Here is the input.
Amino acid sequence: MTNDLTPHDVITRPVITEKALGEVKNGTYTFEVDSRVNKYQVRDAVEKLYNVEVEDVRIMNCKGKPKRYGRSEGYSRSYKKAIVKLKEGFKIREFEGLI
Here is the structure.
């Protein structure tokens, strides 16, 4: 991997939302990833961390939304999200208890 990123640096955290967890049944998992990585680095990181085979990776940049806290205005943080589809028969055990 370029930039000397380890698999733990590439994948920041899993995205735990109702929609993301609903897709786990289809073998699709969602992760927040480092903003500098590409889909090949995400594929390698998921395969190394979870010992699975990846079929497809989709990446999107999520822009921060405008927020107000009283009189002060700002934006929520922007991040990059990866949606990873695993090959048939593979699962990530860490997500099993969340469904």
Q: What stands out?
A: The first strand starts at residue 11 and ends at 14. The chain has one domain: 2-87. The beta strands are 11-14, 28-33, 54-62, 66-69, 72-75, 79-86.
